[in-house]
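Hey L., structure's done. Input below.
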Amino acid sequence: MNKLVKQLDMDGPIMAFSSYKPKEGKKEEFMNLLDNHLPKLRELELASSRQPYLAQSSDGRVIEVFEWVSADAVEAAHQHPAVLDIWEKMALVADFLPMNTIPEGKEPFVSFKLIE
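Output:
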């Protein structure tokens, strides 16, 4: 099981927040890959149909918010070749950065620009 999910001992759906910083000149390529990310997770029944959100921080990061169906789904995603393929391609064009390094994260109430 994913170390963080196991550590938190979560049952049921899990809200996921991901932070990506597209590399210089690679934002369009990254966004195309991200457009395939959640549909693939849903196709594999790993993510729920809950409304996802895409937002942008003041430093240009893309924040993806969606819902895993369970901790087991997180684990399955980390082993599924189709998901790993998308993540590997995303990692070539963007950095995956910790949420606590987002500039807005220093405030108790955070707002981001929504990406349509």
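The beta strands are 14-22, 53-56, 62-68, 94-96, 113-114. The two ends are 33 Å apart (CA to CA).

-- N.
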